[in-house]
Design goal:
Layout (H helix, E strand, L loop, with lengths): L32 E2 L11 H11 L11 H11 L6 E4 L1 H13 L5 E6 L4 H8 L3 E6 L8 H6 L5 E7 L11 H10 L5 E5 L14 H7 L3 E6 L12 E4 L2 H9 L8 H12 L1 H24 L11 E5 L4 H10 L2 E2 L1 E3 L3 E5 L3 H13 L3
Parallel strand pairs: 1-10, 3-4, 3-5, 5-6, 6-7
Antiparallel strand pairs: 2-8, 7-8, 9-12, 11-12
Helix pairs in contact: 1-9, 2-9, 3-4, 10-12
Bound molecules: 4'-deoxy-4'-aminopyridoxal-5'-phosphate.
InterPro entries: Aminotrans_II_pyridoxalP_BS, Aminotransferase_I/II_large, ArAT, HisP_aminotrans, HistidinolP_aminotransfase, PyrdxlP-dep_Trfase, PyrdxlP-dep_Trfase_major, PyrdxlP-dep_Trfase_small
Pfam family, one: Aminotran_1_2
Enzyme class: transferase
């Protein structure tokens, strides 16, 4: 009988699904581009591929559990102590670990909405409570409202900058003003997944902020600017008590040998990778300028993606994109997020934007 079937904790049934970006549609005679997961269109550099190939031969062994070389490389690169770092299986792994390590069931996690869709999943999975604060009409975080949403039960505030999927980033002045209002017992997580794409006046200086505040955590990733999404490597920078808690709850061997090797080889080739980021930023400028010239009111795009506030027309836009051979990311009833991709893919987006009614 059903009484004898094992049942997961009640909140597990309440976990919202993570809808991953669809792969490109296969159509005879037509190249299709995936612009639905904010990936980097450039493959790993040849030197990175070579290093990984060399490491594959030892994949019968567990990885270095402590990932000592990668911790050291990051510590050197960032100028922070190894103890203030925590590696994870993608930066999404850090979000889960933060909630797990800091929230009792029913504790509150405040974040902007819409934002990264893994936030409600991680919060619900830990039986914590999401407090979603709507983004402003221009897609920016409403940091005043987020500070006002902090209660005695709030343990974490997630600040996503640039915000996925709407695009704008928080300024340094805005973050400083926010931190001055939030009690120091609340953990403020600055999700910097798209950090390297930011080009704006007075951007958040994550490292300087972490150095000044005992309650600030930065989460970063090799998935976006470094183009290693498939390897799953992210890291947090935080004062030792926080970073240590993250390491304590981390999945043993969660960063594979090939992932460690790919991340180290990419750090060694950072200048070349950042040139690619520059090219993507130039493409983003071309796309956003083209969209605005065509009459679209798109929000400021500081990540490697643009947001279309389409409401009820969201799925029509996604279908029209599919016809043109670009796969975008629709959020039904809300809008569409489109990653900056190959030049040809971006051309197709501009063509779609010309043809689709504003
Ligand atoms: N944070 C944000 C804001 C993201 O958009 C993403 C990826 N979509 C992540 C974190 C997680 O990236 P990863 O797990 O690949 O590091």
């Amino acid at each position: 009988s059903t009484e004898q079937t094992p049942t997961p904790r009640p909140n597990i049934g309440a976990i919202p699904p993570y809808v991953a970006g669809k792969p490109p549609t296969v159509r005879p005679g037509m190249v299709s581009y995936k612009l639905s997961s904010n990936e980097n269109p450039y493959p790993p550099l040849p030197g990175v591929v070579e290093a990984v190939q060399q490491a594959v031969g030892s994949m019968n062994r567990y990885p270095d559990m402590g990932s000592a070389s990668l911790y050291q490389a990051l510590s050197d690169r960032l100028g922070v102590p190894v103890d203030d770092l925590s590696l994870a299986t993608g930066s999404v792994g850090l979000i889960y670990q933060l909630v797990q390590a800091f929230c009792e069931p029913g504790d509150e996690v405040v974040y902007a909405w819409r934002s990264f869709e893994a936030y409600p999943i991680a919060v619900t999975a830990a039986a914590a409570t999401s407090v979603k604060v709507p983004v402003l009409p221009d897609g920016r975080h409403d940091l005043d409202a987020m500070a006002a949403a902090v209660t005695d039960r709030t343990r974490i505030v997630l600040v996503c900058t640039p915000n996925n999927p709407t695009g704008p980033a928080v300024t340094r002045a805005e973050l400083d003003a926010f931190l001055a209002k939030v009690p120091p017992r609340v953990l403020v997580v600055v999700d910097e997944a798209y950090l390297e794409f930011v080009r704006m006046a007075d951007p958040v200086d994550g490292l300087a902020t972490y150095r000044r505040h005992r309650n600030v955590v930065l989460t970063r990733t090799f998935s976006k600017a470094y183009g290693l999404a498939g390897f799953r490597v992210g890291y947090a920078v935080a004062p030792e008590p926080i970073a240590g808690a993250l390491r304590a709850v981390s999945l043993p061997f969660g960063v594979s040998t090939v992932a460690q090797v790919a991340a180290i080889a990419s750090l060694e080739r950072e200048a070349e990778l950042l040139e690619r980021v520059e090219a993507l930023v130039a493409e983003r400028t071309r796309v956003v300028d083209g969209l605005r010239a065509a009459g679209w009111d798109v929000p400021e795009a500081q990540g490697n993606f643009v947001w279309f506030d389409l409401g009820e027309r969201t799925l029509d836009f996604a279908a029209a994109a599919d016809e043109l051979g670009i796969v975008v990311r629709p959020f039904a009833g809300e809008g569409v997020r489109v990653s900056i991709g190959e030049d040809e893919a971006n051309d197709r987006l501009l063509k779609l934007a010309q043809e689709f009614p504003r």
